[in-house]
Amino acid sequence: MKLRHKLPSVFGLYMVDVLCCSLGCVILLWLFNDYKNALQSRQIAEQKDRLARLSEDQERREKDLARTRTDLADREKQASRLGSELMTRQIELEKLGKDLFSLQDRLKSVDKERMDVRVALDKTRKDLEETEKQRMVQADKAKDIATRRAEAEARLAMLDKELKDRTTLLALKDATAKDLMVTQAELEKKRLAASNRADVAEAALQAALKSMTDQKNMAATLSNDKDKAAKDLAMLQKRLGVLEAALVAETASRKDAEKLGTAAAMDQQKKERDLKDLQTRLQRIQQVAETRFAGIQLTGRKVVLAIDASGSMELIRADTASPEKWAEVGRVAGLVLDSLPDLEKFQVIVFSESSRWLLGDGSWIDYNRATSRSLVVDALSRVRPKGGTNLYEAFRMAFTLRTQGMDALYLLSDGLPNLGEGLSERQRESLREQEKGEVLGQYLRRKLRAEWNAENPNLPPVRINTLGFFYESPDLGAFLWALARENNGNFVGMNNP
Hints:
Elements: H1 13-196, H2 202-290, E1 302-308, E2 315-317, E3 320-321, H3 323-339, E4 345-351, E5 355-357, E6 365-366, H4 372-381, H5 391-398, E7 408-413, H6 425-430, H7 433-452, E8 463-469, H8 474-486, E9 491-494
Parallel strand pairs: 1-4, 1-7, 7-8, 8-9
Antiparallel strand pairs: 2-3, 4-5, 4-6
Helix pairs in contact: 1-2, 3-4, 7-8
């Protein structure tokens, strides 16, 4: 068999088909891409339109946002201003609440004292009315006694007159009886003479005997009259004795009435003295009510003054010195001492970074109205304020006197504590001054409740009153107010002059 070789042909029929198919595919792809591009162009146009609309919306919304931000800034400013006003109103409200509490306490105390005085006055008035009634009864009794005495004296005078008349009559009868006896003697002599002359004058003798018998009968009658007069005299003397006894009894009764009148007068004087004492007490109560130092009821028999001597006590503001401030503190401390109506003993603590007794070694000092005030003021004038405020140490030292009868403590300060027990090392390094003051103040109040001023059946609670000097921080006012209220005391703040 003979092999035949044929040269290969590049463009064959099948290649034409391939080329046609390829060309068709290319055309199809071109058409597809063209259609796709047309779709994409349409979408891009739509996207551009949408983007334009979105841009317009964005611009409008940016304008709204700017306007909203402006409104928000205005609202924030208004909210800040309202917040400041609210804070101011809250501070004013707290201050008004404190003033209201102090006024209510003062009103209750004054009302109670006024009721006590009114009850005492009513009782005294009733006693005076009873005394007046007794005095009127005694006066009526004295008048009755005087009337009876006048009647008795008149009756006695009448009886004396009657006695004198009877005595005169009796004297006349005695004289008549004596005359009759003399006549009888003469007749006896005549009878004897007549007996001797019996024979001569029988008729005369008989007549004489008859006459003598008549005279004897008359003498007997006179004797009977004399006996009757004697009996009348005895009876009159007896009645005179009875009248004298009645007069003595009336005199004794009058003396008793006078004694009762004297006793009533003494009782009246006693009631008047009691009334004067009550008036003095009322004046003293009014004086006590008037000696409330700026809303503080000044009480206490054994009192401790705790006076802040830190560096701020010579500053009227954080950057403004005021040398007169410390002198004012001394003046107020002396005024508090002299205004305590029942003060017997006192002591003073000055504190800054540490504490010390201003006078003596911490024992009680007897209060003398003439010298104690000047003693404290002079001692404070020699102290120079400096350093921080360690309130914990001052209270610890003050409450060592509770077992010795301390019943009131007066704190004079111008700032929150910033030193003392109650802070950890981390808190001392990380906290700000105001935060330190809050932490130390809370610790101090807990210490008072739990230990220093805790309820004790053997010890009375200590009343703590606080005086804030020329302070600007509302936190200090809140702390001093809470400290006083928790310990049955009052708070008063002294504003910057």
